Amino acid sequence: MSNSLLTIAAAAAANPNGASAILIGIAPWLLIFVIFYVLMIRPQQQRVKEHQRAITAIQKGDEVITGGGIRGRVTKVADDEVELEIAQGVRVRVVKGTLSQVLTKSTKPAND
């Protein structure tokens, strides 16, 4: 009896029916997508959320770096714009969305 059950199980594994064949064919793709999501998509979404929180929390006196690489101190904050002082007496208005990095007060330049 047990030999016949083993034979039937082996035959079923060797010749899968339509539903299980589709599942076996899709399983590697699902596994690849899950790995891709865990390693790439989710961390990127977290970085975007963190960047958005930093941009919305900008206050007067913060140092920021724009997307073009200009570093300045925030002198005025509006809804969608900030005014940066990039040199003494030189002020520039930029859109908040173009800010790439908000430097904290404890951040020091790399060459110091």
The outline comes out as: rod-shaped
Poorly predicted ranges:
none
- The number of helices is 2
Distance between the termini: 80 Å
SSE arrangement, N to C? HHEEEEE
Rg for CA atoms: 28 Å
Average residue pLDDT: 84
| Helical amount | 40-55%
How many domains, in number, for the residues?
Answer: 2
Computed structural class: alpha+beta
Number of strands: 5
Summarize the main sheet: 5 strands, antiparallel
> What proportion strand?
25-35%
Strand numbers in spatial order across the main sheet: 4-3-2-1-5
Give your account of this protein's structure.
The chain is α+β, with helices and mostly antiparallel strands and 112 residues long. It folds into two domains: 2-53, no CATH class; 59-103, SH3 type barrels (Roll). It contains two helices and five strands, in the order ααβββββ. It has helices spanning 2-14, 18-56; strands spanning 63-66, 71-77, 81-87, 90-95, 99-103. A hairpin with a 3-residue loop joins strand 2 and strand 3 (81-87). It is rod-shaped, with a radius of gyration of 28 Å.
Jot down its keywords.
alpha+beta, SH3 type barrels, 5-stranded antiparallel sheet, rod-shaped
Secondary structure topology:
Elements: H1 2-14, H2 18-56, E1 63-66, E2 71-77, E3 81-87, E4 90-95, E5 99-103
Transmembrane segments: 20-39
Subunit structure: Part of the SecDF-YidC-YajC translocase complex. The SecDF-YidC-YajC translocase forms a supercomplex with SecYEG, called the holo-translocon (HTL).
Keywords: Cell membrane, Membrane, Protein transport, Translocation, Transmembrane, Transmembrane helix, Transport
